[in-house]
Amino acid sequence: MSNSNLGRDEAEARSALITAHSYDVSLDVRQAADPNVAGYTSRSVITFSASEPGASTFVDFIAGSVHSVFLNGKGLPVADVVDGSRIRLDNLQAQNQVTVTGTALYSTSGEGLHRFVDPADGQCYLYTQFEPADARRVFANFEQPDLKAEFTFHVMAPSDWQVASNGAEVARTQLTSDPATSRWDFAPTRAMSTYITTVLAGPYFKAEDAWTGTLGDGTALEVPLALYCRASMAKSFDAEELFDLTKNGLSFFNQLFDFPYPWGKYDQAFVPEYNLGAMENPGLVTFTESYVFTSRAADSQYQGRANTLLHEMAHMWFGDLVTMKWWDDLWLKESFADYMGTLGVDRATGWETAWVNFANNRKAWAYVQDQLPTTHPIVADIPDLEAAKQNFDGITYAKGASVLKQLVAYVGFDAFIAGSRRYFRDHAYANTTLADLLAALSAASGRDLAEWARQWLQTSGISTLSLEMAEPLETAEPGGDVLGPVAVLQDAVDPATGRQEPRPHRLRIGLYDFDDAGALVRTDSVETDLSGARTDVAALAGKPLPALLLVNDDDLSYAKVRLDPRSEATVRGSLDRLTDPMARALCWTALWDSARDAVTPAALYVDAVRQFVPAEPGIGVLLNVLGNASTAVERFVPRGQRDEVRRSFLVTAAEQLQAAAAGSDQQLAWARTMAATSRYDASGLGLLQGLLDGTIVIDGLAVDAELRWNFWHALAAHGEASQEQLDRELNRDNTAAGKSGHATALAARPEASVKAAAWEAAVHGTGLSNQLLTATIAGFNTAPTSLLAGFIDPYFECLEHVWAERSIEIASRIVRGFYPAGQDLDGHGGTPERHAVILRTDHWLSSRPDAPPALRRIIIEQRSHLHRALAAQARTVEASSSAP
Known catalytic residues? Predict the structure, then answer.
């Protein structure tokens, strides 16, 4: 719809005119299980005041149809006041009430009210997902975060369903005229934004419990708890463990923030085909049901789930209680929640590697995002809702969290928490901007944070730190040479301005050497403040020359690190002897950054993985490094060398699969790697087929549904799986995950007709849900580039049509997923800039300067990913040609 993309200036004008007070929302979903019924009745009663009587405003509603609009008791002509997604309201009074009734549509894209039919039992499930602006797909409202109000929900649904919302259930009435239908009434909420309202309905399995605790002043609290999942998944639902984690989190955050949990009950629902990891709806948090592990999961997956659960719980304060005024300050909630989620895992659970996994995983996401041409400051410029949708990225989440970790090192943890507590007290149930947070933190820490905020929050790009070292000084003392003068160099170009923007860093430099047992251990550490492009570290001079000097030891700051030559030689020769988990993770990251940035050939990274990762005990690091190695093989190693490098990696995977301890996470990790690598190399298919049919058994390896579909994906990619075989496997695993695996494997078959059918279904058809669309795209892309070459021109030709006709969620998946990124340098002029797809992309961008900015952003980012891969390939070719 042409007017659905609300602009920031429009939102500012509306919030200057009106104040929202309350909503009373009624939804009738009693016919949701009938696939022939496309929508449901939605009625929204909104009370609000206007500062200028006689003025006009508008209500947002993306509906199938609008039945009636009443403003202050007067019916308005629908044809005159409804314009696309907006309903015009004229001649406002000081106090107003508008009632909008219409038919809203069920969704299969994960936006609005999503409808899902469980293939396992045919049951229908509903849930809502609104961020950033999809509540208007369910009920009429003022869809912007700073028009907070109280919400009361009423839902008509089948009597045998579970129904929940933000507020507690206060009444449930079975209709005398239709006993199969009941009406649920929920308590009014406290003031909140539209995007965090929610409704859940369906035959969900429900578990209940309660948490009791006390605040620092001794105030007693009790919070009712509930967990939901689909009935067919109940046998895999570890509710007791989730309740324990929830209780630990509530105890931790209530004490830490010294502000009682503000939303009454705390429900958590795990829902199908979810577009996000989770959503912080107060009183009813929704999660992807992939966190209900129906197949064997590694410990790092359980830790990741705990991180997400505590991230969303932190949002009950950061984001829900205190909310950003507009999406420019999205980081105010997401960065804090990302930091607090990791802090919660570290301090409120039994896991000891929370910050290691943060450094190795979350920050890696930020580093990738921050090197794209579309990078932006943490405090971003978000002119409209489409831009907001694209800004839920690694910068807003992980870079922001990393910078907060640096802020904690800068002002101290106690001052940081004191400032947060003041922020909650001063702005409870209200909206804020960056200035409000800085005022609270500055008051608590006694530091003026304005310049710190400018350097860290209002510039873009990533600093790269390296060491400038004089020649070691010889000494007659025992222990040999000592360090001469050492300086840390900071390269920090802001891509937006082209200027150097060196940032202040509070960090440590670790000195590591070999002990008598041959282990590489920390022998000393120097803490220092960096400022400017060059900082002398006088405290290092004269210390014994170590085997490894590790900048940003303990990962206090946000920066890429280049190892000095001596340290790099130590890491490439002895990484498995480095005993500290965080130091080891940081060294893996340094090697990966070097490969991604085309500083060193990608094959060297794969060599390091083959040599050292079998000894890696941290499963989170292991899975991340194996994933990087797969990317290096398929994208960064040039085609002429890829088969050899891939084959050696596959041999290592097969060996380690056999050698790993029975039933261990490491065994599972190598099985997954074996399957992923075998999609492009047929030499391992015999092992996968044997594991599938049971003729090969590896002690402790559970070849469960998830692994089976991974194996079938690899077999299908080589034409070794027929549709009949895949259909039989689906009959064996007739679940949502099974349907997704089936769709991927079907689309992976290396036949032109198969690729054409997948393209047609995804790009031109509308029958695929969000999850099945993603699965189909994954299978489509599992193919040699020659088989996909015919889709390059159709891709660029369909972009604007797809963006105009599909929802932003579905359009983004199509545009991002079908970009022809799997191209190689060979045969395209020898340079990345002359590659045919790069040139085709540049032509599209230059000829369509007025294309929607969010669409252009995706294309620019995909071009950057391809260019980076081609540059890495060119680096390897260059190194090979110059080798003696």
Answer: 312
